[in-house]
Model the fold of this input.
Amino acid sequence: MAAYAFSKLQFPLKNIWFMLMLGTLMLPIHVKLIPQYIMYNQFGWVNTYLPLIVPKFLATDGFFVFLMTQFMRALPKEIDEAAIMDGCNEFSMYAKIIMPLSVPTLVTTSIFTFLWTWNDFFSQMIYINDVKKFTISIALRQFVDAMGHSSWGGLFAMSTLSLVPLFLMFVIFQNYLVEGITAGSVKG
Done:
């Protein structure tokens, strides 16, 4: 919805809000870490998977808002004009026209969000403290002992198994992934 607003709607200070959203891409995660931790702790989300999942659905990654905004800007204006002529308001145009056309970009965004969350060791270490709730990234780290005694066979077996969901996701959605990445890059 944020991408739709930036690409299709007119509102005061739209360009400034867009630049601020892009500015969040330049903030290191360490700058946002303490305020986010305090907020998630107050919500009771620390030691749950919620801090790793919920923000991804709320457009907290400026890169994906930018990607989808650029895709929606590349859609022909004639589509919008035809929808308005057919009696669509902004919400129905978004739900019935723009969203179905944005499926490749949505799939690309979903895949990259999943991959980045799956591989994000730092956030998982910060928000999950219980050994029983450790994610694969943190559990893999448990195989390496500080004293040099490591279970290399178990580590390599678990590493290989941890790649299976990523590989399957890529194989299943590879057509959407390529189409979503190249969408909007070539004007016809």
Observations:
- The first helix runs from residue 2 to 8.
- The mean pLDDT is 86.
- Residues 125 and 163 are 20 Å apart (CA to CA).
- Residues 2-119+176-182 form a domain with the MetI-like fold fold (CATH 1.10.3720.10).
